[in-house]
Amino acid sequence: MTVFDRLNSFFTKVFLLLPVAVVCSYSQTSPAQNCAQFIKPVPGKTITSPSCTLLLESTCNNISKIELQARYFSNERDSGIIVSLGSKNRAPYEFIWDISLIPNQLFTGVAFLAEISKRNGDIETIQRDGIFFAHQPISSDKRTIYYEHSGTKRLTTDTIKIETNRSNLKIRSSIYWNEKELAFYIVVDDPFFNTSISEKVLSECGIEILIDPTLGRKPYPTRDIIAFTIPLTGIPNRVSYQPSFDENGAFKMISKQANCDFHYSIEKDDYKGYKVFFPIPKKAFRDSIPDSLSCNIILKALNESNQIATVAWAKSGIYDTRSPMIFNSLYKTPKPLSKSLLLIGALAFIAGLSITLFIALVINHLRKPKLKTAIEKTEAEQKLFDNLKDAVDRQITYKKLSVDIVARELHISAKKLSNLVRNLTCLSFIHFLMYLRIEIAKERLRSSFCKENEIADKCGFTDEKEMEKYFLKFERTTPDKYRQKQQVT
Questions:
Q1: What is the Cα Rg of the chain in Å?
Q2: Distance between CA atoms of 230 and 33, rounded to whole angstroms?
Q3: Which of 25, 307, 345, 395 is the most buried (most CB within 10 A)?
Q4: pTM score of the predicted model
Q5: Residue 212, phi then psi, degrees to nearest 5
């Protein structure tokens, strides 16, 4: 077996033992015990140039050869591709890898394995993980998230359409915000879907939402990433990522899941698809929902081969979809005035109050006596009204003065007198009588210091309360306030 075959076998066994979703750690001896160690690139390095330079430094004198391999992922397959980068039999142990045709390597990154052959026949291996490539152009979509009231379950005008290779699979989503939450409403039209699928498969299908509230654009998710998985059966989980680089050059992406108690809903319809409503409360963002953030939506659904396939809004490699570097950008719009319930309520209250006041003013205006002018009265009406005024003036202080008493004095019926008063003043006889008494009371309030009860008695009112009642009716104020403003000193 050649050295390359041994390296390939070792590399394959190592990566087969790794869980694909967590990624990237080998067992190895400490660098101090090896005859060589990696100098370049350092753990966590992001390469943006079309070539990657690797440099190893020897720590002993009995090295006969160093052979280097790399493992990376393509966009089309979920298994790693192992390539040989060549070998060196003397220092400097520098390898230059042309990566111009290799896709970006995000989330899991690239891993390197060096096999060190010694002159005595012994072989050592060392590794370097977590090197990221971002040399290919990265484009992202920019979307505006609009304000909608909490609980809105409909596609807004600015609908997100997620492209897929399946012509009969359509994915649309709307994202909106309000004071309580950042809400995702996702509609999946899938004629292959039906609820008779096994619970295990349904639990693996569903939606994954990843949010970077910091717009960090890292090649791998950090603690700042807010991630949720919403299976088609079971309880949604919040996923937290913990990347780590150890001193031996190994990179690990550890993920933990915890149930979340958000109020969400999934509507399923056999052979049509499903609708997912998932509002993320603002407490998930610590203080409040930021004005801008980045996001990716991932769908897991069965394909024509009855296997679970992944489709993402921000497209990239199978693992890169979880890298904040490719997330699409979202920007909040200000809350429109038309959506403010408080403002609408205040405007409705003001409008109602204004209408009420207007109606009250109209009513009060209609209640005030409107005496016809001499031109508006007929000669007979004018003569009769003058006689009426004289009769009332002579007896106005008489507390028991009534329409019957005045009618007898004028030798007409009480009904005819009442109609005459209403026709010429828009008031009943009693209100007309009280109006005339108020006019006398006003003059006495302006020109004297008599007490209000004395003025009420001398003007013919039953008591002070009756005078105050009609004062409010005709003058819209109290006798005391009227006196304070109008009294002649």
A1: 45
A2: 47
A3: 25
A4: 0.65
A5: -115, 100
Q: Are residues 102 and 215 in the same domain?
A: no
Two tokens, residue 160: 């997100």
Quick check: is 222 in a domain?
Answer: yes
Together in a domain, 29 and 156: no
Where would I find the beta strands (DSSP E) of 148-205?
160-162, 170-177, 181-189
297: in domain:
yes
Same domain (yes/no): 228, 332: yes
Amino acid at 468: E
Beta-carbon contacts of residue 248 (< 8 Å; ≥ 6 apart): 28, 30, 31, 127
Of the three residues 82, 98, 133, the one that is the final residue of a domain is 133
CA–CA separation, 439 and 415 (whole Å): 25
- Which of 173, 159, 156 is closest to 311 using CA atoms? 173
CATH number at residue 30: 2.60.40.10
Residues sharing a CB contact under 8 Å with residue 280, sequence separation 6 or more, in sequence order? 181, 182, 183, 184, 209, 211, 226, 228, 262
- Is residue 361 in some structural domain? no
Say whether 165 sits in a helix, a strand or coil. Answer: coil
Number of domains making up the chain: 3
Q: Which residue has the tokens 């192992």?
A: 82
Q: Residue 82 in contact with residue 69, Cβ under 8 Å? A: yes
Q: Based on the domain organization, do 252 and 321 belong to the same domain?
A: yes
Element (H, E) at 316: none
Domain assignment of residue 477, given as a range: 370-486
Q: Which two tokens stand for residue 385?
A: 């009204």
> How do residues 434-477 score in pLDDT, each as one tens digit?
999 899 988 888 888 888 899 998 888 989 999 899 999 888 88
**Could you report the per-residue pLDDT of 299-323, keeping only the tens digit for each?**
999 887 788 888 999 987 777 889 9
pLDDT for residue 53 is more than 90: yes
* Structural domain includes residue 272: yes
CA dist 440 and 144 (Å) reads 72
Which two tokens mark 456? 């009420």
The two tokens of residue 394 are 């002579």
The domain boundary, picked from 321, 338, 355, lies at 338
The answer to whether residues 182 and 259 touch, using CB atoms and an 8 Å cutoff, is: no
289 and 410 housed in the same domain = no
